[in-house]
Specification:
By secondary structure, the protein is of the alpha+beta class. Helix content is about 30%, strand content about 30%. Strands 1, 2, 3, 5, 6, 10, 12, 14 and 15 form a nine-stranded mixed β-sheet that branches. The protein has an eight-stranded mixed β-sheet with strand order 27-28-26-25-32-35-34-33. A five-stranded antiparallel β-sheet has the order 22-21-20-23-24.
């Protein structure tokens, strides 16, 4: 007990030393100075080029310069860096006004040379006016790693948009643990363009450096002067790397040039082996632990498991990685006494225990970031960031990580992530060893629903989960951070998202049997059935399975899409019925592809009144290549379509209110109206064809109409009447000239042929000896230009008026009438008295089309729902006050995007978001109650999207809060504005989450 308290006290003193040292400049900024650049630095002149596109974050990167002197025993290694960038907007200004420079106080000094602002060609020196603060960085403290890095914070005054900022500094010194090894990777491409890049490496070694490239063909210029070797890279307008989100950590598309003294992996092993050999050993304490393990386990596999569990559970993780401690492991005996250590310290202790047991074990250097791509990199000592243990025993090999926890005491069940390749130190393989960890992560879920004959009675729901490998490890780690009660409440909240009225019937519990961890839960579901007319329905959702059938947010990809692997998840849902009046068809479905295997089986046992839904997902790879994204998406969508399973029963007494019987639903009403419109159009077209045949025997002439009648016909045909009118006039011209022109073609492309038509009518009008300003070529040209603009007026008006609530369709119909009216008036003057040509078919068409036009205009003015996603500013103040009164959204919030799935009144349904909040509300037709969900974007944990696949389906946007509550937004895919809605929502969400993270820090 005393040692426990001493450990806590020591931890507190370490934290006090690391974090609460007085942050004065003199103490915290040791190794910081100001002065000129070192003499060996070669002056490099920045020469501006042409303006480029693709700047990111409000900054245009003009120059990236790095000059390195690899050093000799009497000349320490130095790195000179110089950057130049242009400030484009406020975001760039906020970012560039503060600079962060880093150096390690254990072995480095930092010298600041230059901070200049270039404004209107004038250079303004900012060194004297800088606000400088230096403090311990410890960015990895949350992972219990402390490395002694100092962060120097520079605040630049009077920096403005349009300015250019140039700064340079030098770090002197290198970690002595690297001895004579030298390796540097020079990045030559980024996610943003860089106008100019200059790299220079000066090497004073006895032999030239090894030069290798990765994902680039950039050339390196080398020169030798005596014993000095110099290497240079000069670039202009670098390539832009296009990356996607949700990619594996190792999927780096950037290009690099490596310069190194390391020629083979053997060199790295020879460097690392002595450090580990010195630390691996024995002591009285280690011998005592070894003896205790032998007493507990007679077999070697049991001893391996106990040794691993001992280091995992008794040696807490803490990394004091200052200076050489970044790579030099602590002796095993000292780690055992301290009872703490980092990955290399815990690995050395585990190896010491295993070798004491006569078991072969070695340290294995791995990269958690580069991972599976490590074998493509040139050999280097600084590519590794983690150490695990490689064990060989009885013809089997094991990869073990003593920094993990809760892995049990059966070695075959221990989970180990696959880092692709490892450098095993001490085996003298002189090459990377491919990792092949055992696949032992399984999750088996069994859900049982007991349905009563009386639908009003609650449903009993029991569920159990059998976890192995990573699943069990993760569960226990989660339990350590909370309590059984909190974990039980989170699971209950999860199921409440699927089944209303879910409450726990017994406490949440778990037990561990070998490598199996089994949880048990029991619930009562009070409101199991959902009403739909005269039916009661329920859908069973295998939520865990669907969590692995994930779709990428970015479907157009250049990067691979990361998958969780290796896992096998099985979920069996069994529905037990009390009555015999149920019937289901057996069904089997399988989706087999290169990425995963999914299987679903539906089996109904009528004798036992039991429906069993069995589903299984098995991952086959950890990523989807970018070229295979479409195949993967199609496979996931096929599988997801099979996951949910719905059942229904009829109400014992079906009742339908008179109001529901009188008013049809929106779909039925829409289809009825469309059917009436189609029937009327068919009648009108038949009548028109008959009339056309009759007119073929009458004398032809230009087609005159009273102006009011022309406007009326344009309205009832939604603007398409102008095509028929143009066709009749071109047909007359063809008859008059006996030419072979195509009237239908010229009317269809009326925009192109408008001026020729106007010009011909004007010439015929003048040939009759009449004079009119409308017949002048200048007016004809102006009318043609006006007609051209009018044909694109709807989109143009929307852009000019910022999508305000206006009847765009009505304006689109009326605006082309202005230039057409000029031609019509000339034709009317030629024909004298103009007869009316309205027929019964026109009035019939008007009875249908005018109400339709009115409906469209009221939608576009947003007097009723528009049927698509709209900007929030078009929502009327009365509707905003309605949302405010209902508690959905404060009236003064800036509503960004909104969609209503209602037919006539947005007060019965709405989905939208502001810069801070997302919401969904609806009026339930069955009980006339008003319901809504809303959440602050900062409290949203995830946003899942299922885009609609058909025109009559909505896109589903599932909002998942930090408390694991979910609600769904329904968004129309009209004009693909559902993607605009989703992308904008996610952008606002990320902004709020980043702001929350900044406040937390």
């Amino acid at each position: 007990m005393r040692s426990h308290y001493l450990s806590i006290l020591a931890s507190g003193l370490i934290s006090l030393f690391l974090f609460y040292s007085p942050p004065t400049f003199a103490e915290a900024a040791r190794g910081f100075s100001q002065g000129p650049a070192p003499e060996w630095v070669k002056p490099h002149r920045y020469t501006p080029g042409s303006e480029r596109e693709g700047a990111h974050g409000g900054i245009d990167y003009l120059l990236v310069e790095s000059q390195r002197r690899a050093g000799t025993p009497d000349k320490p290694r130095q790195t000179f860096r110089r950057f130049r960038e242009r400030i484009l907007n406020q975001a760039g200004l906020d970012k560039a006004s503060e600079l962060y420079l880093y150096h390690n106080q254990e072995y480095q000094q930092l010298a600041l040379h230059q901070v200049d602002v270039i404004r209107d060609g004038q250079v303004i020196n900012k060194l004297d006016s800088l606000v400088i603060n230096s403090f311990r960085s410890e960015d990895r403290a949350s992972s219990l790693i402390y490395d002694g890095v100092i962060r120097t914070h520079l605040i630049i005054d009077d920096l403005r948009i349009g300015d250019e900022l140039e700064y340079s500094y030098t770090t002197t010194g290198s970690n002595p643990v690297y001895q004579q090894l030298y390796s540097v990777g020079l990045q030559v491409s980024w996610g943003v363009p860089v106008e100019q890049v200059y790299y220079r490496v000066v090497w004073d070694g006895p032999a030239p450096l090894n030069v290798r490239s990765l994902r680039t063909e950039v050339g390196v210029t080398s020169a030798q002067t005596g014993d000095r070797f110099e290497y240079e890279i000069r670039l202009r307008n670098t390539d832009v790397i296009k990356d996607n989100s949700e990619k594996p950590s190792w999927a780096d598309a950037s290009g690099y040039v490596f310069l190194s003294t390391v020629s083979a992996w053997q060199d790295v092993e020879h460097w690392a082996a002595p450090m580990y050999q010195q630390a691996i050993g024995s002591s009285d304490g280690i011998a005592a632990v070894v003896a205790d393990i032998r007493r507990q386990a007679p077999t070697s596999t049991g001893q391996i498991a106990l040794a691993l569990a001992y280091v995992q559970d008794n040696i807490r993780y803490l990394g004091l990685e200052m200076g050489t401690n970044s790579h030099q492991p602590t002796p095993a005996s000292e780690t055992l006494e301290l009872r703490y250590g980092d990955c290399k310290d815990k690995t050395v202790l585990l190896i010491s225990l295993l070798r004491g047991l006569g078991i072969s074990a070695y340290p294995a250097l791995v990269s958690t970031e580069t991972g599976k791509d490590l074998h493509n990199y040139p050999p280097s000592h600084n590519l590794f960031d983690h150490v695990i243990t490689y064990v060989e025993n009885a013809g089997k090999s094991y990869w073990l990580d003593p920094t993990r926890r809760n892995q049990g005491q059966i070695i075959e069940g221990v989970y180990q992530p696959d880092y692709g390749h490892a450098l095993v130190v001490g085996m003298q393989r002189n090459a990377l060893t491919p990792m092949q960890p055992q696949h032992n992560s399984y999750l088996t879920i069994r859900d049982d629903f007991y349905l009563n004959a009386d639908a009003a009675q609650p449903v009993t729901f029991t569920t159990s989960s059998d976890m192995q490998g990573w699943f069990a490890e993760n569960f226990l780690s989660r339990l350590e951070r909370s309590s059984m009660q909190e974990l039980g409440e989170s699971y209950q909240n999860y199921y409440q998202g699927y089944y209303n009225g879910t409450s726990a019937s017994s406490p949440f519990s778990y037990e561990r049997a070998g490598q199996h961890l089994i949880t048990r839960e029991q619930y009562s579901i009070a409101d199991f059935w959902e009403e739909d007319g005269d039916r009661l329905e329920q859908t069973f959702y295998p939520g865990t399975i669907r969590n692995y059938l994930v779709l990428p947010e970015e479907r157009e990809r250049t990067s691979p899409f990361a998958l969780i692997h290796p896992v096998t998840v099985s979920q069996t849902m069994t529905i037990h019925f009390e009555g015999d009046d149920w019937s289901f068809d057996n069904h089997a479905f399988a989706e087999q592809n290169a990425f995963f295997h999914y299987q679903r089986d539906v089996v109904y046992n009528k004798g036992e009144r039991r429906l069993t839904l069995t589903q299984q997902y098995t991952s086959l790879t950890d990523h989807v290549p970018a070229a295979d994204t479409a195949d993967y998406i199609a496979a996931v969508e096929r599988a997801r379509a099979e996951t949910n399973y719905g059942i229904f029963r009829y109400k014992e007494t079906a009742t339908t209110s008179s109001e529901e019987g009188f008013w049809p639903d929106a779909y039925t009403l829409t289809m009825t109206l469309l059917g009436i419109c189609a029937a009327v159009l068919c009648i009108v077209l038949i009548s028109w064809f008959v009339a056309m045949r009759r007119e073929e025997n009458t004398p032809q002439q230009y087609y005159p109409l009273p102006l009011w009648q022309f406007v009326f016909l344009m309205l009832i045909t939604l603007g398409t009447y102008s095509l028929f009118w143009a066709y009749r006039n071109w047909k007359y011209i063809k008859t008059l000239d006996n030419s072979d022109i195509m009237p239908a073609f010229r009317s269809l492309f009326a925009v192109i042929w408008f001026f020729p038509l106007y010009n011909r009518v004007a010439k015929d009008y003048s040939a009759m000896g009449r004079n009119s300003l409308l017949a002048s070529p200048l007016i004809a040209a102006a009318a043609a230009l006006t007609y051209l603009l009018a044909m694109f007026s709807e989109q143009l008006l929307q852009e000019l008026l910022n999508n305000r609530a206006l009847p765009y369709t009505l304006l689109y119909i009326l605006l082309p009438i202005l230039p057409l009216a000029a031609v019509l008036l000339l034709i009317n003057h030629q024909n004298g008295q103009v007869p009316s040509r309205l027929r019964w078919r026109h009035w019939l068409l008007a009875t249908v089309m005018l109400p339709l036009l009115a409906l469209i205009c009221t939608q576009e003015m947003y007097l009723i729902p528009a049927g698509g996603v709209v900007e929030g500013h078009v929502i009327s103040q009365s509707d905003r006050r309605f949302m405010d009164r209902r508690g959905v959204l404060p009236a003064d919030d800036n509503l960004l995007y909104f969609y209503s799935d209602a037919f006539f009144d947005i007060r019965s349904d709405g989905n939208g978001f502001t810069g801070e909040r997302v919401f969904s509300y609806w009026q339930d037709d069955s009980d006339d109650n008003f319901y809504f969900h809303s959440a602050k974007l900062a409290d949203v944990k995830d946003i899942r999207v299922k885009y609609s696949e058909r025109w009559d389906e909505n896109t589903l946007v599932t909002i998942v809060t930090e408390s694991d509550k979910e609600f769904v937004l329904y968004v129309s895919n009209d004009n693909k504005r559902d993607k605009l809605f989703v992308n904008s929502l996610k952008a606002q969400w990320k902004n709020q989450r980043q702001a929350l993270s900044a406040q937390t820090l």
